[in-house]
Amino acid sequence: MSNESTGGKVFLVGAGPGDSGLITRRGAHLIEQADVIIYDRLVSPDILDLAAVSTEMVDVGKTPGKSNISQLEINHLLIDKAKRGKTVVRLKGGDPFVFGRGAEEAAALSEEGIHFEVVPGVTSAIAGPGSVGIPVTDRGKASYFTVVTASEDPTKTDSDINWDAIAKGNETIVVLMGSKNIDEISKVLIKGGRDPSTPAAVVESATMADQREVFGMLANIGELAALSKIAAPCVLVIGEVVESAKKLQVRTNFPLLGKKILVTRSRDQASKLSMSLRDLGASVVELPTIAISPINDYKYLDKSITNISDYKWVIFSSANAVNAFYSRLSQMRLDSRHFSEVKIGAIGPATCRALRLEGISPDFIPPRAVSDSLIANFPHSESSLQKILLPSPEAAPETIKMGLEKLGWTVHRVDAYKTIMPKQSVKRAGRLLNESLDMVTFTSSSTVTNLDAMLESGIPPEVSIACIGPVTAETAREIGMKPDIVAEEHTINGLVSAITIFYSS
Predict the structure, then answer these.
(1) Inter-axis angle of helices 299-306 and 319-331, nearest 10
(2) pLDDT of residue 285
(3) Alpha-carbon distance 399 to 255, whole Å?
(4) pLDDT score at 5
(5) How far apart are CA 108 and CA 114, in angstroms?
(6) Chain center to CA of 145
(7) Beta strands in 84-144 (DSSP E)
(8) Catalytic residue chosen out of the listed positions 177, 208, 454, 481
(9) Where do the domains of the chain lie, and which CATH numbers do they carry?
(10) Is 191 annotated in the active site?
(11) β-bridge pairing 212-217 and 199-204
(12) Catalytic pick from 40, 46, 95, 452?
C-alpha cells in the first residue's frame, strides 16, 4: 500500500479498550493494509496480528520504570515514515483523542503538511463501566459525566485538574490511569464536597478475560482496591450510576466469563466460532493455524469438471471444497447448469450453505456431519460401475474414498485446494500458549497437526482441549494430546454448546 510517488499518509487509529473484537471495522481494515504500524503497549496482540507479514511493526509503548521513547521521538518517527511514502497506522489503546496524545501527533503531522486521518476507537471511559453494567449516564441519576486523567498526582498544588470543581454535583466521575492513587483521589473528592457514601467501583482490564471489578463507596474504594491488588489498566467510576450494576448483573449472564480460549481456524472462517464464544463472555484469541491456498496444478480438477457427465455423484466434504471447486468452474466460464445430470452430496451445514449460495440444493446430506455418517447412509444399490467425484484438499485423509469404494463405488479423489501454515502464526504460537490460556479449540485435523508443528513443547497440561468431532479428536490423540471435549454435534454450534456445558458442570 506504499505511496512513494504521492507521499504517505498517517492514520491515528483507536484500538479500543482491550478486547480485539471491539476495534472498528475501519481500524481493522487499515491495519491489514498498512506498511508500518506504530503501536502502544496496551494494544491487544490479536489486533496486531491483523497486519500482513511484511508490515513493519514498531513498538513505542511506554512501560513504567523503563527507558521509553519520548513523544517528540514518536512524532518524528511518524513524520519520517510518511515522508518515505508509507501508509502508517499509529495504533493507540482506546480512542486516540481521549488522553492518548493523539492531538499532539496530529498537530505535528499538520505542521509538516502530512495527510492524516483520525479513526476513533471505543474508549475505556465508557467501555470499562459498561462491561460491568454501569451506565455513565442515567436519566434518573446522572445527566452528564466527567472523564479525568489521574496521570498526575491530584494532591499536587500545581495540578491542572480542578478536583474541587469535579467533586461538586452528582454527575458521574470516570477516572483513567489512576491505579496507583485511587485512595488519594477519593480523599481529594471527599474534601471537595462529594459524599463519602457515594457508590464507587474500579474495573481492571476491562473487556478482557482477566477483567476484575471491585465495588464500594468513595470512602473505602481505595482500601478495597488495594486489598484486591488492583493494577493498571483500570477505570475508577464514582456516582449513583454504580448501583445499576447490582440490578443489571451483566457479568452473571455469561457462562464463559473469564475464560481465555484459543481459536485455531483459518482467519476467514474463525469469525462465527469467535463471535459465538465472545457472546458467552469468553475472551477469544485467534491463531490461524491453517490458511486456504490454491494448488499448483489444476490439470486434474479441470479435466474432472470438463468430463462431469462421467460421474453419478459429486460429494463435497467442506465449504472450502465448494468454494475452490466453484471458483475453478467460474474461471472455466461454466456455472451450476453444468451439473444438471449429476447428483450432489454434502457433509455438514456449512457445506450445504456454501452450495446453496451457488444455487445448488444437495441431493444427499448425512444425518451427522462426519465422514462415517456419509458412508453408513450413502446409497449403494446404484453403485455398480458408477463413479463419484470427490474434490478434496491436498493430502486429505482417504477415509471417505475408501469407505465408498467398499460400497462398490468408483471414487475419483481430486485436489481442489491446499492448506498452508500461516507464517505470522508460527511466530506467535509459543508465546500465546504461555499467556494463561484456558482452552484450545480444534475444528479439523489440519488445525491440530499444524499447531503441534508450531509448538516446541506442546500444549501445557493445564490448558483444556476441545475438538469439533471424533476425527479431529483422534488426530489429537495420535500426536499425544488428550481432548477434554469432543462435540456430539460436529458443527460450530455443537462445539460451542459442548464448551459451555464443560464449564457449567
Answers:
(1) 80
(2) 85
(3) 37
(4) 40
(5) 9
(6) 31
(7) 87-92, 115-119
(8) 177
(9) 9-121 (3.40.1010.10), 126-248 (3.30.950.10), 260-290+421-504 (3.40.50.10090), 293-419 (3.40.50.10090)
(10) no
(11) antiparallel
(12) 40
Q: So what's the pLDDT on residue 193?
A: 94
Length of the chain: 505
Q: Distance (Å, rounded) from C-alpha 261 to C-alpha 19?
A: 13
Long-range contacts of 293-299 (CB under 8 A, 24+ apart): 293/417, 293/418, 293/419, 293/420, 294/324, 294/417, 294/418, 295/394, 295/415, 295/416, 295/417, 295/418, 298/328
Residue type (1 letter), 454: M
Q: Which three cell numbers stand for residue 467?
A: 475438538
| Predicted TM-score of the model (pTM) | 0.71
Q: Which amino acid is at 12?
A: L
Q: What pLDDT score does 66 carry? A: 61
Told to judge if 332 belongs to the known catalytic residues of this protein, a careful annotator would answer no
Which position has the grid cell 472462517?
Answer: 269
Residue 3 has a pLDDT of 47
Whether 481 is catalytic: no
Q: Which residue has the cell 482467519?
A: 267
- Spatial CB neighbours of 231, under 8 Å, sequence gap ≥ 6: 179, 204
Of these residues, 62, 246, 423, 427, which one is catalytic?
A: 62
Residue by residue, what is the 3-state secondary structure of 432-477?
HHCCCCCEEEECCHHHHHHHHHHCCCCCCCCCEEEECCHHHHHHHH
Residues in the chain predicted with pLDDT less than 50, given as ranges, are 2-5
